[in-house]
């Protein structure tokens, strides 16, 4: 089969790989019809994630058609159209029993630190991802969900990570009616978090980024006020001025490890790999939220330490909430919201890329060219 293959930082190719096979009676093989490139894939592309091995295939956001199932699989069958959450999980361990699918104990040798994630290095279990023609899906009775007939492919693929993660970010904020919510990051997750904040009762939503085209999208898609942080000497001070000097009730970090805005943090994280990520957005979040407020973190960080202003968080009495999103837990409510017209996930899609052109797609997304917000990979496209 043809698949995206990692060859080193900033180098990916499309090559022939062995088509995955059933390795366990609970496996399924899925023929991929849509995959996406996620902002967190760029952490891999930029060489920031430990144990990203040459020859590995990325892609934790994908949907497809079931091609083959193992003898124990009962809930899906060949021909079914399925969406696959980015979490690999067993469904039976202590954490899965509590709905903490992203913290499953049985799918990753590094499970004390992180659960299993498709296409996200051997640190996250070493599962090849869906930026390929076919992908092996373990625990096929547990993770995949049937795609409703009324849901189109571009909307469905965004239910495998970006929309649930944004919605989860707003959930973690424990937003109450009238809250002022600040969202750092106007990528897909930040846009979905901002829009979700309204559904949860926010009285005011402010999105912070430095790319004008993304801030335009935040105003159009999420109906948010926007702040370009490069236009202010101190973005935290500016946000304090906008919030009567107190700060926001809730701040969501939807940026993660590669935040711009502080050269020292960027160099020590992205260039020297001395941190698990540049915590610029997280530190701004801690400074921006009011005393006693809540900081929600859904931006991805690596497993190493990061220079976070924990003392300020403690002395302000903040609540810090974070996790990888347990995607499947969000599906019933999100499908209801989509059907009722509160979300059209594919509104954030800006590009469709044939699998053969995925190296150009990574370059475009990484360099923020052509107003790229969310690129979708189509394996069957010529």
TrEMBL record:
Alcohol dehydrogenase-like N-terminal domain residues: 25-142
PROSITE patterns: ADH_ZINC
Alcohol dehydrogenase-like C-terminal domain residues: 188-260
GO molecular function, one term: oxidoreductase activity
Matching CDD domains: FDH_like_1 (cd08283)
Record Pfam families: ADH_N, ADH_zinc_N
Keyword terms, alphabetized: Metal-binding, Zinc
Transmembrane segments: none
Cofactor entry: Zn(2+)
Similarity comment: Belongs to the zinc-containing alcohol dehydrogenase family.
Protein name: Glutathione-dependent formaldehyde dehydrogenase
Organism name: Nocardioides panacis
């Amino acid at each position: 089969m043809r698949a995206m293959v990692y060859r080193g930082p900033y180098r990916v190719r499309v090559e022939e790989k062995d088509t995955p096979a059933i390795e366990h009676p609970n496996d399924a093989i899925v023929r991929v019809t849509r995959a996406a490139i996620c902002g967190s894939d760029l952490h891999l592309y930029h060489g920031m994630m430990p144990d990203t091995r040459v020859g590995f295939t990325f892609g934790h956001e994908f949907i497809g058609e079931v091609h083959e199932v193992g003898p124990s699989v009962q809930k899906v069958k060949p021909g079914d159209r399925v969406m696959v959450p980015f979490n690999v999980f067993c469904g039976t361990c202590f954490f899965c029993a509590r709905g903490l699918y992203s913290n499953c104990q049985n799918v990753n040798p590094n499970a004390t630190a992180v659960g299993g994630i498709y296409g996200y290095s051997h640190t996250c279990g070493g599962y090849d991802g869906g930026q390929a023609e076919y992908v092996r899906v373990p625990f096929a009775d547990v993770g995949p969900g049937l795609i409703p007939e009324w849901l189109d492919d571009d909307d469905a693929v965004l239910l495998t990570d970006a929309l649930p993660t944004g919605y989860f970010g707003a959930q973690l904020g424990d937003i109450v009616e009238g809250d002022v919510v600040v969202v750092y990051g106007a990528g897909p997750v930040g846009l979905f978090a901002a829009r979700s904040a309204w559904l949860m009762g926010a009285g005011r939503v402010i999105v912070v980024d430095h790319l004008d085209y993304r801030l335009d999208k935040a105003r159009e898609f999420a109906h948010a006020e926007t702040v370009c942080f490069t236009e202010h000497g101190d973005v935290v001070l500016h946000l304090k001025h906008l919030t009567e000097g107190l700060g926001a009730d809730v701040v969501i970090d939807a940026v993660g490890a590669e935040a711009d805005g502080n050269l020292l943090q960027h160099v020590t994280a992205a260039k020297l790999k001395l941190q698990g990520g540049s915590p610029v957005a997280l530190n701004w979040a801690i400074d921006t939220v009011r005393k006693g407020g809540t900081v929600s973190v859904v931006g991805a960080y690596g497993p190493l330490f990061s220079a976070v202003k924990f003392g300020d968080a403690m002395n302000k009495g903040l609540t810090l909430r974070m996790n990888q999103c347990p995607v499947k837990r969000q599906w019933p409510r999100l499908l209801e919201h989509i059907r009722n017209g509160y979300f059209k996930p594919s509104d954030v899609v800006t590009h469709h890329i044939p699998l053969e052109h995925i190296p150009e797609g990574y370059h475009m997304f990484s360099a923020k060219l052509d107003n790229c917000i969310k690129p979708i990979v189509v394996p069957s496209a010529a």
